[in-house]
Design a protein that fits this description.
Shape: elongated
Oligomer: single chain
Number of domains: 1
Radius of gyration: 25 Å
Strand content: under 5%
Helix content: over 70%
Number of strands: 0
């Protein structure tokens, strides 16, 4: 087994690796609104997918006399529709949050008092 604590390796230290990361950029109104539009598009796509899956499952019932098969089928269908609905909700909330953040930044810039 090799010694993983050997300090003679040529790998860069954690501090040197952290220095190469770009600095964080402040959110701007434009970036917030563009992000909100992108998240809204994903939310609409996920909503369409959720409705399509739900309609597909509703139009094709499970045909079986075995109660276990029916219960497992219902559980799987519920999980699939639930996961698609969860994606819809996550992207919808992200879109709303980015929109509100953009409005907050815009209001802060408009109401900022000029320096005397």
């Amino acid at each position: 087994m090799s010694d993983v604590t050997n300090s003679d390796s040529n790998s860069p230290s954690l501090k040197a690796a952290g220095e190469s990361l770009p600095a964080k950029q402040q959110p701007t109104v434009l970036r917030c609104f563009i992000g909100s539009l992108i998240a809204s598009a994903f939310a609409f796509g996920m909503y369409s997918l959720t409705m399509s899956i739900a309609l597909s499952f509703a139009s094709k019932p499970v045909h079986s006399a075995n109660i276990t098969v029916i219960k497992i089928g219902v559980a799987v269908r519920t999980l699939v529709v639930g996961m698609a609905a969860l994606g819809t909700g996550v992207f919808g909330i992200a879109a709303l949050g980015l929109l509100l953040l953009g409005l907050q930044i815009l209001l802060q810039k408009l109401l900022k008092k000029p320096a005397v």
